[in-house]
């Protein structure tokens, strides 16, 4: 919950402060216009990016699903996000907006995929496996004399 609130606030701040933040780095009017036109996407992307990170590293990795996370990330990048970025940047006039669109697709697919994977986790089995690991690790400890 804290990450969701934090990312929503950060996304809102980035959107509201887009012009002053951009002016810190450049005074080029074209860059300022491009940032103004595409900053709303960044405001949406921050919460979505945080959500997919929490779902993967906060839930799936602790449940031992590292391979599933790695496979999902690899497939999403190679077959969806990267082709969209390449096509939209080089074959259209979208420019930076095309990069944002590709990343939005990446985060969106990951959120849906990770939510499905979390829904398939059997908590009773995970609790039993965790209890077994604790028993095995404590059985190997030598008591202090």
Q: First CA to last CA: what distance?
A: 45 Å
The run of helices and strands is: HHHHHH
Strand content: under 5%
Class computed from helices, strands and strand pairing: mainly alpha
Give a short account of the largest sheet: none
**What percentage of residues falls in helices of 4 or more residues?**
over 70%
H/I helix tally: 6
Global Rg: 21 Å
**Gross morphology:** elongated
Total number of strands:
0
What is the overall pLDDT average? Answer: 87
**Low-confidence segments:** none
What does this structure look like?
The protein has 145 residues and is mostly helical. 83% of the residues lie in helices and 0% in strands. It has 6 helices and no strands. Helix 2 (18-25) packs across helix 3 (29-60). It is elongated.
Task: List the main descriptive attributes of the protein structure presented here.
145 residues, elongated, mainly alpha, 0% strand
Give the structure's gist in a few sentences.
The protein has 145 residues and is an all-alpha fold. It has 6 helices and no strands.
What order do the helices and strands come in, and which of them pair?
Elements: H1 2-16, H2 18-25, H3 29-60, H4 66-90, H5 96-119, H6 123-139
Helix pairs in contact: 1-3, 2-3, 3-5, 4-5
């Amino acid at each position: 919950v804290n990450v969701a609130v934090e990312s929503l606030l950060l996304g809102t701040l980035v959107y509201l402060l887009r012009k002053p933040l951009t002016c810190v780095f450049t005074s080029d009017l074209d860059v300022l216009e491009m940032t103004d036109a595409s900053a709303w996407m960044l405001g949406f992307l921050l919460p979505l990016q945080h959500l997919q990170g929490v779902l993967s590293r906060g839930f799936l990795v602790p449940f031992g699903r590292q391979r599933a996370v790695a496979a999902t990330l690899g497939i999403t990048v190679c077959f969806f996000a990267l082709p969209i970025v390449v096509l939209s940047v080089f074959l259209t006039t979208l420019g930076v907006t095309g990069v944002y669109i590709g990343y939005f697709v990446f985060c969106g697919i990951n959120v849906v995929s990770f939510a499905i994977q979390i829904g398939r986790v059997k908590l009773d089995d995970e609790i039993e496996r965790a209890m077994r690991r604790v028993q095995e690790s404590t059985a190997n400890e030598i008591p202090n004399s």
